[in-house]
Every structure is written in C-alpha cells, then in structure tokens.
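Q: Hi! First time doing this. I have a protein sequence and I read that you can turn it into a structure. Is that right? Here it is:
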Amino acid sequence: MTSTPFDVDAFLRRPLTARLATNGPTVRPVWFLWEDGTFWVLTGPWTRLFARVRNDPDIALVVDECDLATGRVRQVIARGSARLVPFDVERGRRKLVRYLGADESRWDTRFVHYLYDDPAERGTTWLCLTPSSLTATDLSYAPPGSAAAPAADSPPGPRSC
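A: Yes, that's right. Below is the predicted 3D structure, encoded as structure tokens:
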C-alpha cells in the first residue's frame, strides 16, 4: 500500500456502501466492515455472491463518496482474492451497529437473525478481502460559487460523479 491523500482508515470506518465486483461480471452494493486491513462482507449459500466467490475468488471492491454541495469526491478501490470464512457473531454485531445503530430493538428482524440464529445452520459466512492492491484517490474540487472555486479562465476540474 502506498501513501494516500486522506485518512483511508477513517474513511472506511464510515457507514458507506461499497460496490463489490465478481467475475461474470456482476456488481452489487454491500455493507462492509473494515478491520485490521480487511474488508468483511456478510454472505451465505442463499446468495449468488457466495457461489461466485467460491468458483472464482478474484474480486474488486469500491467505496466512494460524492458530495456535490461541498465538492468532496473520494474513492478507495481494493482488489484481491476473497476468502470465505466462518461467521463470528461479535464481528457481525460490530458491522451491523455501524449501519443500524446500537439499539438492536430498533433493527429490522432480518438483521437480528444474523446475530441470534445458529450461523452453521443458516450458513452465514464472511467474505474477507485483504487487498493485494488498494488505491485511494481524492478527486475533490471547489464547487462553483465557493470561495475556493477556480477563476472562470481556469481549466475545469471534475464536475460530476
């Protein structure tokens, strides 16, 4: 991994949605947990993702943000071979709390089942990606009308996401 233009760990701790790409090609949005240099994504035999990764573990994952009001545009792209490993409830709780909040009584029951059903019986599994490559890019710009906006004769920067 190389030096990055922003704090990648802080960025990836935010409850952002990633897009995960598998051979096929297939791209799907996923919630993830970033811990110890690894992306953790919940899956199981009830998903196509599980079968695709078992057949071909090479994946790519993108996490990005684009705020047109502030001009903040940042992205992290990770690539590597995914592993399917047994689900552990405490990691599952940490992942779900970041997206749903700490009060489990307010969660949709679909998510509560992951923590209280037997993972072995249900087949709940972690897809783990410890990236072989990770690229972080800051494409932020000063939006039109802001004090930091370039002069009218300056070359335009990125304007859309």
